[in-house]
Amino acid sequence: MNDPLARTWSGYLRVDGRKGIRNIVLVIYTVECARHVAHLIAQDEPDTHVIGFPGCYDNQYAIRLMLALARHPNVGAVLSVGLGCEYTQPGKIAEVAEASGRPAAAFYIQDVGGTRASVAKGKEIVADLRARITRDTPRVPMGFADLTLGCECGGSDATSGLVGNPCVGRLFDHLVDRGGTAIVEEIVEMIGLRDLILARAADDRASGELAAAYDKAVAYCQSVRQYSVSPGNFSGGLTTIEEKSMGAFAKSGARPIQGVIRVGERPPRPGLWVLDSVPDPHFMGFGYTNPNDTEGIMDLIGAGSQLVLFVTGRGSVIGSPIAPLVKVTGNSRTYGRMSEDMDFDAGRVLAGEITLDDAALDLAAMIADVAGGRPSKPEALGHREYFIMYKHQDTPALAQGCRTNG
Amino acid sequence: MIHGFKIHPDDNVATLLVDAGPGPVVVGGPAAPADLTLAAAIELGHKVALADIPAGAAIVKFGVSIGLASRDVHRGEWVHLHNCRSRFDARSSTLDVHTGATTDTRYE
Q1: With respect to CATH, is domain A24-136 assigned 3.40.50.1980?
Q2: A267 FRET partner, CA 20 to 30 A, in A218, A303, B33, B85?
Protein backbone atom coordinates (compact mmCIF):
# COMPACT_ATOMS: atom_id res chain seq x y z
CA MET A 1 0.00 0.00 0.00
CA ASN A 2 2.50 2.56 -1.13
CA ASP A 3 0.90 3.47 -4.45
CA PRO A 4 2.03 6.99 -5.38
CA LEU A 5 -0.95 7.32 -7.74
CA ALA A 6 -3.32 6.97 -4.76
CA ARG A 7 -1.79 9.97 -3.02
CA THR A 8 -3.86 13.06 -2.25
CA TRP A 9 -2.91 16.60 -1.26
CA SER A 10 -4.62 19.87 -0.50
CA GLY A 11 -5.64 21.93 -3.54
CA TYR A 12 -7.37 25.25 -4.24
CA LEU A 13 -11.00 25.05 -5.40
CA ARG A 14 -12.07 27.43 -8.18
CA VAL A 15 -15.63 28.55 -8.94
CA ASP A 16 -15.75 26.39 -12.11
CA GLY A 17 -15.00 23.28 -10.03
CA ARG A 18 -11.42 22.84 -11.20
CA LYS A 19 -8.71 22.52 -8.59
CA GLY A 20 -5.35 24.29 -8.55
CA ILE A 21 -2.06 23.23 -6.96
CA ARG A 22 -0.90 26.85 -6.51
CA ASN A 23 -2.74 30.06 -5.65
CA ILE A 24 -0.99 32.84 -7.50
CA VAL A 25 -1.64 36.43 -8.50
CA LEU A 26 -1.05 36.79 -12.24
CA VAL A 27 0.14 40.12 -13.64
CA ILE A 28 -0.64 40.40 -17.37
CA TYR A 29 0.74 43.19 -19.52
CA THR A 30 -0.84 43.97 -22.86
CA VAL A 31 2.05 45.46 -24.84
CA GLU A 32 5.85 45.40 -24.72
CA CYS A 33 5.84 49.03 -23.51
CA ALA A 34 4.28 47.85 -20.20
CA ARG A 35 6.62 44.88 -19.69
CA HIS A 36 9.19 46.47 -17.40
CA VAL A 37 6.56 48.03 -15.15
CA ALA A 38 4.73 44.68 -14.90
CA HIS A 39 7.93 42.91 -13.86
CA LEU A 40 8.77 45.63 -11.31
CA ILE A 41 5.29 45.19 -9.83
CA ALA A 42 5.84 41.45 -9.37
CA GLN A 43 9.44 41.77 -8.15
CA ASP A 44 9.84 40.47 -4.58
CA GLU A 45 6.10 39.75 -4.34
CA PRO A 46 5.44 36.16 -3.18
CA ASP A 47 3.38 33.91 -5.47
CA THR A 48 3.08 36.61 -8.13
CA HIS A 49 3.90 35.70 -11.73
CA VAL A 50 4.02 37.72 -14.95
CA ILE A 51 2.95 37.00 -18.51
CA GLY A 52 2.32 39.39 -21.34
CA PHE A 53 2.04 40.00 -25.05
CA PRO A 54 4.58 42.20 -26.84
CA GLY A 55 2.52 43.39 -29.81
CA CYS A 56 0.69 46.71 -30.07
CA TYR A 57 -1.66 45.32 -32.71
CA ASP A 58 -3.80 42.69 -31.09
CA ASN A 59 -4.11 39.06 -32.11
CA GLN A 60 -7.10 36.80 -31.42
CA TYR A 61 -4.92 33.77 -30.79
CA ALA A 62 -2.78 35.60 -28.21
CA ILE A 63 -5.86 37.02 -26.47
CA ARG A 64 -7.46 33.56 -26.32
CA LEU A 65 -4.27 32.18 -24.77
CA MET A 66 -3.98 35.01 -22.23
CA LEU A 67 -7.64 34.58 -21.21
CA ALA A 68 -7.09 30.83 -20.78
CA LEU A 69 -4.07 31.59 -18.57
CA ALA A 70 -6.00 34.22 -16.57
CA ARG A 71 -8.59 31.50 -15.75
CA HIS A 72 -6.06 28.74 -15.09
CA PRO A 73 -6.82 26.65 -11.98
CA ASN A 74 -3.51 27.70 -10.36
CA VAL A 75 -4.42 31.39 -10.76
CA GLY A 76 -6.35 33.02 -7.90
CA ALA A 77 -6.40 36.66 -9.03
CA VAL A 78 -5.40 38.84 -11.99
CA LEU A 79 -3.93 42.32 -12.45
CA SER A 80 -3.76 43.49 -16.06
CA VAL A 81 -1.49 46.42 -16.93
CA GLY A 82 -1.40 48.30 -20.22
CA LEU A 83 0.43 51.37 -21.47
CA GLY A 84 -2.69 53.02 -22.84
CA CYS A 85 -2.45 53.17 -26.62
CA GLU A 86 -2.31 49.46 -27.59
CA TYR A 87 -5.14 47.48 -29.21
CA THR A 88 -5.32 44.76 -26.50
CA GLN A 89 -7.52 45.98 -23.64
CA PRO A 90 -6.36 45.18 -20.08
CA GLY A 91 -9.81 46.08 -18.71
CA LYS A 92 -11.45 43.36 -20.83
CA ILE A 93 -8.97 40.77 -19.54
CA ALA A 94 -9.80 41.75 -15.94
CA GLU A 95 -13.55 41.53 -16.74
CA VAL A 96 -13.21 37.98 -18.04
CA ALA A 97 -11.13 36.96 -15.00
CA GLU A 98 -13.72 38.53 -12.68
CA ALA A 99 -16.57 36.73 -14.46
CA SER A 100 -14.76 33.46 -13.69
CA GLY A 101 -14.93 34.22 -9.96
CA ARG A 102 -11.42 35.64 -9.59
CA PRO A 103 -10.73 39.03 -8.03
CA ALA A 104 -9.19 41.19 -10.75
CA ALA A 105 -8.07 44.72 -11.55
CA ALA A 106 -6.63 46.67 -14.48
CA PHE A 107 -5.07 50.04 -15.19
CA TYR A 108 -3.20 51.99 -17.88
CA ILE A 109 0.25 53.33 -17.05
CA GLN A 110 -0.49 56.55 -18.96
CA ASP A 111 -3.48 57.22 -16.66
CA VAL A 112 -1.51 56.61 -13.47
CA GLY A 113 1.40 58.75 -14.56
CA GLY A 114 4.68 56.94 -15.08
CA THR A 115 6.89 54.11 -13.94
CA ARG A 116 7.18 54.64 -10.19
CA ALA A 117 3.57 55.66 -9.65
CA SER A 118 2.40 52.63 -11.68
CA VAL A 119 4.66 50.23 -9.80
CA ALA A 120 3.46 51.59 -6.44
CA LYS A 121 -0.19 51.30 -7.51
CA GLY A 122 0.39 47.82 -8.93
CA LYS A 123 2.06 46.57 -5.75
CA GLU A 124 -0.82 47.92 -3.67
CA ILE A 125 -3.32 46.07 -5.88
CA VAL A 126 -1.28 42.84 -5.82
CA ALA A 127 -1.07 42.91 -2.01
CA ASP A 128 -4.84 43.37 -1.79
CA LEU A 129 -5.56 40.60 -4.33
CA ARG A 130 -3.20 38.21 -2.54
CA ALA A 131 -4.81 38.90 0.83
CA ARG A 132 -8.24 38.23 -0.67
CA ILE A 133 -7.38 34.92 -2.32
CA THR A 134 -5.38 33.71 0.69
CA ARG A 135 -8.42 34.36 2.86
CA ASP A 136 -11.22 33.30 0.53
CA THR A 137 -10.01 30.36 -1.59
CA PRO A 138 -11.44 27.05 -0.28
CA ARG A 139 -8.89 24.26 0.28
CA VAL A 140 -10.00 20.83 -0.89
CA PRO A 141 -8.42 17.39 -1.16
CA MET A 142 -7.22 16.51 -4.66
CA GLY A 143 -5.50 13.61 -6.36
CA PHE A 144 -4.39 12.39 -9.78
CA ALA A 145 -7.96 12.26 -11.12
CA ASP A 146 -8.10 16.06 -10.64
CA LEU A 147 -4.86 16.64 -12.52
CA THR A 148 -4.25 17.71 -16.07
CA LEU A 149 -0.61 17.12 -16.93
CA GLY A 150 1.08 18.38 -20.06
CA CYS A 151 4.33 17.11 -21.51
CA GLU A 152 6.79 18.93 -23.70
CA CYS A 153 10.19 17.74 -24.82
CA GLY A 154 13.13 19.88 -25.85
CA GLY A 155 16.89 19.64 -26.09
CA SER A 156 16.28 16.02 -27.03
CA ASP A 157 19.02 13.47 -27.46
CA ALA A 158 18.83 9.74 -28.08
CA THR A 159 18.03 9.04 -24.41
CA SER A 160 14.83 11.11 -24.69
CA GLY A 161 13.32 8.51 -26.99
CA LEU A 162 14.82 5.55 -25.14
CA VAL A 163 13.74 6.36 -21.57
CA GLY A 164 12.86 10.05 -20.92
CA ASN A 165 9.70 10.15 -23.03
CA PRO A 166 8.73 6.47 -22.49
CA CYS A 167 8.89 7.12 -18.72
CA VAL A 168 6.41 10.00 -19.07
CA GLY A 169 4.32 7.84 -21.44
CA ARG A 170 4.05 5.13 -18.80
CA LEU A 171 3.09 7.74 -16.20
CA PHE A 172 0.44 9.15 -18.57
CA ASP A 173 -1.05 5.64 -18.93
CA HIS A 174 -1.42 5.52 -15.13
CA LEU A 175 -2.84 9.06 -15.04
CA VAL A 176 -5.47 8.26 -17.69
CA ASP A 177 -6.35 4.97 -15.94
CA ARG A 178 -6.97 6.99 -12.74
CA GLY A 179 -9.38 9.33 -14.52
CA GLY A 180 -6.95 12.19 -15.06
CA THR A 181 -6.11 14.15 -18.20
CA ALA A 182 -2.88 14.04 -20.20
CA ILE A 183 -1.90 16.42 -23.01
CA VAL A 184 0.94 16.02 -25.47
CA GLU A 185 2.03 18.77 -27.80
CA GLU A 186 4.27 19.05 -30.84
CA ILE A 187 2.42 17.64 -33.83
CA VAL A 188 5.41 18.85 -35.85
CA GLU A 189 7.30 16.14 -33.96
CA MET A 190 4.94 13.42 -35.13
CA ILE A 191 6.01 13.87 -38.75
CA GLY A 192 6.72 10.54 -40.39
CA LEU A 193 4.29 8.67 -38.11
CA ARG A 194 0.91 9.34 -39.76
CA ASP A 195 -0.31 5.73 -39.73
CA LEU A 196 0.93 5.14 -36.17
CA ILE A 197 -0.86 8.14 -34.66
CA LEU A 198 -4.11 7.48 -36.58
CA ALA A 199 -4.03 3.90 -35.24
CA ARG A 200 -4.11 5.38 -31.72
CA ALA A 201 -7.34 7.38 -32.30
CA ALA A 202 -10.17 6.55 -29.87
CA ASP A 203 -12.84 6.92 -32.60
CA ASP A 204 -13.47 8.20 -36.13
CA ARG A 205 -13.85 11.77 -34.99
CA ALA A 206 -10.47 11.69 -33.21
CA SER A 207 -8.93 10.04 -36.26
CA GLY A 208 -10.23 12.82 -38.51
CA GLU A 209 -8.91 15.50 -36.16
CA LEU A 210 -5.49 13.83 -35.98
CA ALA A 211 -5.30 13.41 -39.77
CA ALA A 212 -6.17 17.08 -40.36
CA ALA A 213 -3.68 18.29 -37.75
CA TYR A 214 -0.95 15.99 -39.10
CA ASP A 215 -1.47 17.06 -42.71
CA LYS A 216 -1.43 20.73 -41.68
CA ALA A 217 1.85 20.19 -39.78
CA VAL A 218 3.51 18.60 -42.83
CA ALA A 219 2.26 21.43 -45.07
CA TYR A 220 3.54 23.94 -42.54
CA CYS A 221 7.03 22.43 -42.36
CA GLN A 222 7.21 22.22 -46.15
CA SER A 223 6.06 25.83 -46.39
CA VAL A 224 8.66 27.23 -43.99
CA ARG A 225 11.33 24.70 -45.08
CA GLN A 226 12.10 23.89 -41.47
CA TYR A 227 11.41 20.82 -39.38
CA SER A 228 11.30 20.69 -35.59
CA VAL A 229 14.82 19.41 -35.10
CA SER A 230 17.84 21.42 -34.02
CA PRO A 231 21.66 21.27 -34.14
CA GLY A 232 21.78 19.94 -30.57
CA ASN A 233 19.48 17.05 -31.52
CA PHE A 234 21.78 16.03 -34.39
CA SER A 235 24.88 16.38 -32.24
CA GLY A 236 23.18 14.15 -29.64
CA GLY A 237 22.79 11.36 -32.18
CA LEU A 238 19.37 12.00 -33.76
CA THR A 239 19.70 11.89 -37.54
CA THR A 240 16.23 12.65 -38.94
CA ILE A 241 12.91 14.23 -37.94
CA GLU A 242 11.34 10.76 -38.31
CA GLU A 243 13.72 9.39 -35.68
CA LYS A 244 13.06 12.33 -33.36
CA SER A 245 9.31 11.90 -33.91
CA MET A 246 9.36 8.27 -32.75
CA GLY A 247 11.14 9.33 -29.57
CA ALA A 248 8.88 12.32 -29.01
CA PHE A 249 5.66 10.37 -29.62
CA ALA A 250 6.68 7.89 -26.90
CA LYS A 251 5.62 10.46 -24.31
CA SER A 252 1.99 9.84 -25.29
CA GLY A 253 2.10 6.36 -23.74
CA ALA A 254 -0.26 3.71 -25.05
CA ARG A 255 -3.81 4.88 -24.30
CA PRO A 256 -6.26 5.93 -27.05
CA ILE A 257 -6.09 9.56 -28.21
CA GLN A 258 -9.45 11.25 -27.55
CA GLY A 259 -8.96 14.09 -30.03
CA VAL A 260 -7.13 17.30 -30.88
CA ILE A 261 -7.48 20.60 -29.01
CA ARG A 262 -6.12 23.95 -30.14
CA VAL A 263 -4.28 26.64 -28.21
CA GLY A 264 -6.49 28.25 -25.57
CA GLU A 265 -8.91 25.29 -25.50
CA ARG A 266 -9.23 22.75 -22.71
CA PRO A 267 -9.81 19.02 -23.13
CA PRO A 268 -13.61 18.58 -22.94
CA ARG A 269 -13.25 15.38 -20.89
CA PRO A 270 -10.47 13.36 -19.23
CA GLY A 271 -8.16 11.04 -21.15
CA LEU A 272 -5.24 11.55 -23.50
CA TRP A 273 -5.34 14.55 -25.88
CA VAL A 274 -3.09 16.06 -28.53
CA LEU A 275 -2.61 19.85 -28.53
CA ASP A 276 -2.23 21.45 -31.96
CA SER A 277 -0.12 24.59 -31.77
CA VAL A 278 0.60 24.80 -35.50
CA PRO A 279 -0.70 28.01 -37.11
CA ASP A 280 -3.45 27.71 -39.69
CA PRO A 281 -2.69 28.73 -43.27
CA HIS A 282 -3.62 32.39 -43.29
CA PHE A 283 -3.45 35.52 -45.41
CA MET A 284 -0.32 36.50 -43.46
CA GLY A 285 1.28 33.11 -44.10
CA PHE A 286 1.67 30.39 -41.57
CA GLY A 287 3.87 32.42 -39.24
CA TYR A 288 6.02 30.50 -36.81
CA THR A 289 5.21 27.52 -34.64
CA ASN A 290 7.29 26.11 -31.80
CA PRO A 291 9.91 28.88 -31.96
CA ASN A 292 11.25 27.59 -28.63
CA ASP A 293 10.38 25.21 -25.79
CA THR A 294 8.77 27.92 -23.66
CA GLU A 295 6.09 28.59 -26.26
CA GLY A 296 4.93 24.96 -26.23
CA ILE A 297 4.92 24.92 -22.44
CA MET A 298 2.73 28.06 -22.40
CA ASP A 299 0.27 26.30 -24.72
CA LEU A 300 0.10 23.28 -22.39
CA ILE A 301 -0.52 25.55 -19.40
CA GLY A 302 -3.15 27.39 -21.43
CA ALA A 303 -4.92 24.05 -21.87
CA GLY A 304 -5.25 23.84 -18.09
CA SER A 305 -2.22 21.74 -17.09
CA GLN A 306 -1.59 22.40 -13.39
CA LEU A 307 1.93 20.98 -13.82
CA VAL A 308 4.02 20.38 -16.92
CA LEU A 309 6.66 17.71 -17.47
CA PHE A 310 9.60 18.78 -19.62
CA VAL A 311 11.74 15.95 -21.01
CA THR A 312 15.23 17.06 -22.01
CA GLY A 313 18.12 14.72 -22.71
CA ARG A 314 20.66 17.48 -23.17
CA GLY A 315 19.47 19.58 -20.25
CA SER A 316 17.71 22.93 -19.93
CA VAL A 317 17.44 25.72 -17.37
CA ILE A 318 13.99 27.08 -18.17
CA GLY A 319 10.96 27.18 -15.89
CA SER A 320 7.42 28.44 -16.30
CA PRO A 321 4.95 30.82 -14.70
CA ILE A 322 1.55 29.65 -13.37
CA ALA A 323 2.19 25.88 -13.48
CA PRO A 324 5.35 24.31 -12.03
CA LEU A 325 7.69 22.70 -14.53
CA VAL A 326 9.22 19.33 -13.60
CA LYS A 327 12.31 18.59 -15.69
CA VAL A 328 12.98 14.97 -16.61
CA THR A 329 16.10 13.69 -18.32
CA GLY A 330 16.89 10.23 -19.66
CA ASN A 331 20.58 11.09 -19.66
CA SER A 332 22.31 10.51 -16.31
CA ARG A 333 25.34 12.51 -17.47
CA THR A 334 23.09 15.51 -18.02
CA TYR A 335 21.49 14.96 -14.62
CA GLY A 336 24.91 14.87 -12.97
CA ARG A 337 26.13 17.97 -14.79
CA MET A 338 22.92 20.00 -14.22
CA SER A 339 21.46 18.50 -11.04
CA GLU A 340 20.66 21.98 -9.74
CA ASP A 341 18.17 22.35 -12.59
CA MET A 342 17.03 18.82 -13.46
CA ASP A 343 14.33 17.28 -11.26
CA PHE A 344 14.24 13.64 -12.36
CA ASP A 345 16.84 11.18 -13.67
CA ALA A 346 15.17 8.53 -15.84
CA GLY A 347 18.64 7.52 -17.05
CA ARG A 348 18.72 5.06 -14.14
CA VAL A 349 16.59 2.82 -16.38
CA LEU A 350 19.32 2.75 -19.04
CA ALA A 351 21.91 1.94 -16.38
CA GLY A 352 19.77 -1.05 -15.38
CA GLU A 353 19.29 0.29 -11.83
CA ILE A 354 15.48 0.46 -12.04
CA THR A 355 12.77 -0.59 -14.50
CA LEU A 356 10.71 1.80 -16.62
CA ASP A 357 7.70 0.96 -14.41
CA ASP A 358 9.66 1.88 -11.28
CA ALA A 359 10.74 5.13 -12.90
CA ALA A 360 7.15 6.06 -13.83
CA LEU A 361 6.01 5.44 -10.25
CA ASP A 362 8.97 7.43 -8.85
CA LEU A 363 7.97 10.27 -11.18
CA ALA A 364 4.36 10.03 -9.96
CA ALA A 365 5.60 10.39 -6.36
CA MET A 366 7.61 13.47 -7.33
CA ILE A 367 4.56 14.96 -9.07
CA ALA A 368 2.47 14.38 -5.92
CA ASP A 369 5.16 16.13 -3.84
CA VAL A 370 5.22 19.16 -6.16
CA ALA A 371 1.43 19.22 -6.43
CA GLY A 372 1.33 19.23 -2.62
CA GLY A 373 3.43 22.39 -2.50
CA ARG A 374 7.09 21.39 -2.68
CA PRO A 375 8.70 23.65 -5.28
CA SER A 376 10.13 21.96 -8.37
CA LYS A 377 13.77 22.85 -9.08
CA PRO A 378 13.07 25.54 -11.71
CA GLU A 379 10.32 26.92 -9.49
CA ALA A 380 12.72 27.19 -6.53
CA LEU A 381 15.33 28.89 -8.74
CA GLY A 382 12.79 31.53 -9.75
CA HIS A 383 12.54 30.54 -13.42
CA ARG A 384 9.30 31.99 -14.83
CA GLU A 385 9.99 32.16 -18.58
CA TYR A 386 6.96 32.86 -20.76
CA PHE A 387 6.38 33.44 -24.46
CA ILE A 388 3.24 34.63 -26.21
CA MET A 389 3.44 35.52 -29.86
CA TYR A 390 1.43 36.49 -32.90
CA LYS A 391 -0.16 33.45 -34.49
CA HIS A 392 -3.34 32.57 -36.34
CA GLN A 393 -5.60 29.64 -35.59
CA ASP A 394 -8.71 31.49 -36.65
CA THR A 395 -8.62 31.51 -40.46
CA PRO A 396 -10.63 34.67 -41.17
CA ALA A 397 -11.75 35.37 -44.72
CA LEU A 398 -8.98 36.84 -46.84
CA ALA A 399 -10.56 40.27 -47.18
CA GLN A 400 -11.49 40.66 -43.51
CA GLY A 401 -10.10 43.88 -42.07
CA CYS A 402 -9.42 45.38 -45.48
CA ARG A 403 -11.51 47.79 -47.57
CA THR A 404 -10.26 46.87 -51.00
CA ASN A 405 -13.32 48.01 -52.97
CA GLY A 406 -13.26 51.68 -52.09
CA MET B 1 27.84 -4.42 -19.46
CA ILE B 2 26.21 -3.54 -22.76
CA HIS B 3 27.53 -0.76 -24.99
CA GLY B 4 24.53 -0.37 -27.25
CA PHE B 5 20.82 -1.13 -27.39
CA LYS B 6 18.61 -2.46 -30.18
CA ILE B 7 15.06 -1.28 -29.47
CA HIS B 8 12.87 -3.37 -31.82
CA PRO B 9 13.46 -6.80 -33.41
CA ASP B 10 13.14 -5.29 -36.92
CA ASP B 11 15.77 -2.57 -36.32
CA ASN B 12 18.90 -2.49 -38.46
CA VAL B 13 20.58 0.07 -36.17
CA ALA B 14 21.36 0.14 -32.42
CA THR B 15 21.85 3.19 -30.17
CA LEU B 16 25.12 3.57 -28.24
CA LEU B 17 24.59 3.91 -24.48
CA VAL B 18 28.24 4.86 -23.92
CA ASP B 19 31.03 6.29 -26.03
CA ALA B 20 32.58 3.21 -27.66
CA GLY B 21 34.84 1.89 -30.41
CA PRO B 22 36.70 1.28 -32.50
CA GLY B 23 36.56 -2.43 -31.70
CA PRO B 24 34.15 -5.08 -30.42
CA VAL B 25 31.02 -4.05 -28.48
CA VAL B 26 28.10 -5.80 -26.81
CA VAL B 27 24.60 -4.86 -28.00
CA GLY B 28 21.53 -5.59 -25.85
CA GLY B 29 17.86 -5.72 -26.75
CA PRO B 30 15.56 -8.01 -28.77
CA ALA B 31 17.31 -10.16 -31.41
CA ALA B 32 20.55 -8.24 -30.97
CA PRO B 33 23.57 -9.64 -32.84
CA ALA B 34 25.93 -11.80 -30.76
CA ASP B 35 28.97 -9.77 -31.73
CA LEU B 36 29.58 -6.48 -33.44
CA THR B 37 32.74 -4.56 -34.20
CA LEU B 38 32.65 -0.78 -34.51
CA ALA B 39 34.66 0.47 -37.48
CA ALA B 40 35.46 3.72 -35.63
CA ALA B 41 34.60 5.52 -32.39
CA ILE B 42 30.88 6.28 -31.97
CA GLU B 43 29.47 8.60 -29.31
CA LEU B 44 26.73 7.93 -26.78
CA GLY B 45 23.30 8.43 -28.34
CA HIS B 46 24.49 7.84 -31.88
CA LYS B 47 23.60 4.84 -34.05
CA VAL B 48 25.55 1.91 -35.41
CA ALA B 49 24.47 -0.29 -38.35
CA LEU B 50 23.71 -3.88 -37.30
CA ALA B 51 23.69 -5.10 -40.91
CA ASP B 52 24.88 -4.02 -44.32
CA ILE B 53 22.28 -1.53 -45.62
CA PRO B 54 22.31 -0.77 -49.36
CA ALA B 55 21.85 2.79 -50.65
CA GLY B 56 18.14 3.65 -50.85
CA ALA B 57 17.06 1.08 -48.22
CA ALA B 58 15.26 2.09 -45.02
CA ILE B 59 17.15 2.78 -41.80
CA VAL B 60 14.92 1.10 -39.21
CA LYS B 61 14.80 2.12 -35.51
CA PHE B 62 11.86 1.65 -33.10
CA GLY B 63 10.57 -0.76 -35.78
CA VAL B 64 9.84 2.12 -38.20
CA SER B 65 11.73 3.73 -41.06
CA ILE B 66 13.52 6.80 -39.70
CA GLY B 67 15.05 7.62 -43.08
CA LEU B 68 16.81 6.16 -46.12
CA ALA B 69 20.44 5.18 -46.58
CA SER B 70 21.95 7.87 -48.82
CA ARG B 71 24.82 5.50 -49.73
CA ASP B 72 25.82 1.92 -48.92
CA VAL B 73 26.20 1.50 -45.17
CA HIS B 74 28.29 -1.33 -43.73
CA ARG B 75 27.65 -3.34 -40.59
CA GLY B 76 29.49 -1.71 -37.65
CA GLU B 77 29.49 1.74 -39.29
CA TRP B 78 28.25 4.98 -37.68
CA VAL B 79 24.81 5.92 -39.10
CA HIS B 80 24.12 9.65 -39.17
CA LEU B 81 23.65 12.68 -41.42
CA HIS B 82 26.40 11.61 -43.84
CA ASN B 83 24.74 8.32 -44.82
CA CYS B 84 21.06 8.60 -43.75
CA ARG B 85 18.57 11.13 -45.13
CA SER B 86 15.09 12.11 -43.96
CA ARG B 87 12.12 11.47 -46.25
CA PHE B 88 10.83 14.92 -45.24
CA ASP B 89 13.61 17.26 -44.16
CA ALA B 90 16.12 18.16 -46.88
CA ARG B 91 18.03 20.76 -44.86
CA SER B 92 19.27 18.25 -42.29
CA SER B 93 21.50 16.68 -44.95
CA THR B 94 23.44 19.97 -45.19
CA LEU B 95 24.34 20.19 -41.48
CA ASP B 96 27.80 19.58 -40.03
CA VAL B 97 27.90 15.85 -39.33
CA HIS B 98 29.60 16.22 -35.93
CA THR B 99 28.05 19.34 -34.42
CA GLY B 100 24.75 19.58 -36.30
CA ALA B 101 25.59 23.24 -36.99
CA THR B 102 24.09 24.85 -40.09
CA THR B 103 26.28 25.40 -43.14
CA ASP B 104 23.76 27.46 -45.15
CA THR B 105 23.25 30.48 -42.86
CA ARG B 106 25.27 33.64 -43.49
CA TYR B 107 26.58 35.52 -40.43
CA GLU B 108 27.90 38.53 -42.35
Answers
A1: no
A2: A218
